[in-house]
Amino acid sequence: PRARPRLVFHTQLAHGSPTGRIEGFTNVKELYAKIAEVFDISPTEILFCTLNTHKVDMQKLLGGQIGLEDFIFAHVRGETKEVEVTKTEDALGLTITDNGAGYAFIKRIKEGSIINRLQTVCVGDSIEAINDHTIVGCRHYEVARMLRELPRAQPFTLRLVQPKKAFDMIGQRTRSSKSPGEGRVATGKETLRLRTQGPAVLEEGPSEEAAARRVDDLLESYMGIRDSEL
């Protein structure tokens, strides 16, 4: 039988560190444990990971799969801050996700919303407590429900933990400029798919030609269009 390939990934702490090498993980919790071991920190220090950029870029958030050439940046706990919010509308303007290991954090802030007017709240901030009630260990939909059920016109307190920032990110709410670490872009040829249960699976990603053919097939079946120049 063909030997299983040894999958080794490169990683850094997003605020700056030497490059480490990790392997042998099958889910997000094991991945965090491997990163923590390399950098001699606790796995609970890691808020989330991004791929191929050290920026707090939610478009590059590590999800359920990692390309074999992806570079993993771990964003760790920085400063804790508390902010008082008055719910003047039903919606706060937050999109919340979680890292699969116990931390829910802010993925998106709607422009013009209640939260958008609070400059101290940023994308990437982990929500640690609501009115001193800890939510560590809750899934993102549970946190969203708690916030949705808070009464209007009654102030409440959010305790947030922001990711530790590199020097070039200090004072920036969001930035999209590229950094040296962003040059390592995945080719998409092979992907390690992480699972909550069972081993991780190595998958062959579609080639550019195969992907183009799939788009052509969809256009033809739904719109009657098949144009190789599109």
TrEMBL record:
Annotated family: Belongs to the GIPC family.
Name listed for the protein in its UniProt record: GIPC3 protein
Domain PDZ as annotated: residue spans: 82-149
CDD domains attached to this UniProt entry: PDZ_GIPC3 (cd23079)
Native organism taxonomy: Eukaryota, Metazoa, Chordata, Craniata, Vertebrata
Listed Pfam families: GIPC1_GH1, GIPC1_GH2, PDZ
Naturally occurring in which organism (per UniProt): Oxyruncus cristatus (sharpbill)
